[in-house]
C-alpha cells in the first residue's frame, strides 16, 4: 500500500504505537478512518487534499499497522490516543475529516477541546445531537445486525476471523467496492489480536456511544465547532436530514464510493 509522495512513520504513545502516513504541506488536515478499514480508505482523497494541506492519516489503535493492545478501546483511551497524536506531531489546531465511528470520536474531541479543531467534516454518521429516530433504529437492526454480534467476547473475534463478517459489511454497505479492496481491509482481522481489537472497539466504544446517541444524551451538548455531515443517498441505515448533505451514488462507505464528492466538500468546507 504505497502512494506517491506519502511518507510513513510510527508514533509511540502511552500503551500504543500508531502508524501514521503524511503528505503535502500547509494547514494540517487529520483524516480518521472507520470500521473495518485503515488509512488506505483515504487513498483516493489524500493526494488531492495534499495539494493544498498537510494531510495526516493515522491507523487508529488496533487497525492497519498500528499496534493492537488488549486494552484501550474505551472513550477516554481513544480520545487520549487522538490528543496524544496531535501533541506528538505538534498540531495545535487542525481540520478534521472523519468516517463512521471516528466521527463520534472527532465530535467528542470538538466538545472536549474545541480550540484544537477548526472544523469537522463527518461522513456516514448522523450528528451526535440529532433527534433519536425510531425508523433508523429499525433499519440498524435489519441491516446492521452485525452490531449485535461483534461486541461479544469470543463470538465477535471469531466472526471477524472465521466467517468473513468484515467482507459482508464492506460488500453490503458499499455501492460496488472492488473485491481486492474488500479482501485487503478484511485481511487484517486474520491476526488474532486485531480480531479481538475490533470486537473490543464495538463493546467498549461503538455500541455504548451509539446507545447514548439513540437515547438523546448528546442533545444538550453545545457544539461550537463548525461541522458538516455527508450521508450517502444509498446508505441502508442512515438517512440524510435537514442538517446533512446527501451524496448521490454512495452508501455507507462513502469515501470508497464517491471520493470525488468527499474531496469537493472538504476543499470547499475547509476554505480552499
TrEMBL record:
Gene3D superfamilies: alpha/beta hydrolase. Keywords: Hydrolase. InterPro entries: AB_hydrolase_1, AB_hydrolase_fold, Epox_hydrolase-like. The keyword Cell membrane does not apply. The keyword Transcription regulation does not apply. Residues 28-239 form the AB hydrolase-1 domain. GO terms for molecular function: hydrolase activity. This is Alpha/beta hydrolase. The lineage of its organism: Bacteria, Bacillati, Actinomycetota, Actinomycetes, Propionibacteriales.
Amino acid at each position: 500500500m504505497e502512494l506517491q509522495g506519502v511518507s510513513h512513520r510510527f508514533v509511540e504513545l502511552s500503551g500504543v504505537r500508531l502508524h501514521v502516513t503524511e503528505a503535502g504541506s500547509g494547514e494540517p488536515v487529520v483524516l480518521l478512518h472507520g470500521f473495518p478499514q485503515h488509512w488506505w480508505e483515504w487513498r483516493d482523497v489524500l493526494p488531492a487534499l495534499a495539494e493544498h494541506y498537510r494531510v495526516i492519516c493515522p491507523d487508529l489503535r488496533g487497525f492497519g499497522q498500528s499496534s493492537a493492545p488488549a486494552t484501550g478501546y474505551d472513550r477516554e483511551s481513544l480520545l487520549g490516543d487522538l490528543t496524544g497524536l496531535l501533541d506528538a506531531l505538534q498540531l495545535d489546531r487542525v481540520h478534521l475529516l472523519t468516517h463512521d465511528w471516528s466521527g463520534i470520536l472527532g465530535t467528542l474531541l470538538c466538545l472536549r477541546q474545541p480550540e484544537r479543531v477548526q472544523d469537522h467534516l463527518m461522513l456516514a454518521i448522523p450528528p451526535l445531537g440529532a433527534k433519536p429516530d425510531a425508523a433508523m433504529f429499525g433499519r440498524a437492526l435489519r441491516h446492521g445486525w452485525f452490531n449485535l454480534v461483534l461486541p461479544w467476547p469470543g463470538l465477535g473475534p471469531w466472526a471477524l476471523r472465521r466467517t468473513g463478517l468484515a467482507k459482508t459489511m464492506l460488500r453490503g454497505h458499499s455501492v460496488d467496492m472492488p473485491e481486492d479492496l474488500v479482501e485487503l481491509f478484511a485481511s487484517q482481522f486474520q491476526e488474532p489480536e486485531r480480531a479481538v481489537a475490533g470486537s473490543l472497539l464495538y463493546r467498549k466504544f461503538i455500541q455504548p456511544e451509539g446507545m447514548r446517541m439513540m437515547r438523546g444524551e448528546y442533545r444538550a451538548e453545545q457544539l461550537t465547532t463548525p461541522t458538516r455531515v455527508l450521508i450517502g443517498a444509498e446508505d441502508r441505515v442512515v438517512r440524510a436530514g435537514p442538517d446533512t448533505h446527501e451524496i448521490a451514488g454512495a452508501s455507507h462507505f462513502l469515501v470508497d464510493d464517491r471520493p470525488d464528492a468527499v474531496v469537493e466538500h472538504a476543499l470547499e468546507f475547509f476554505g480552499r
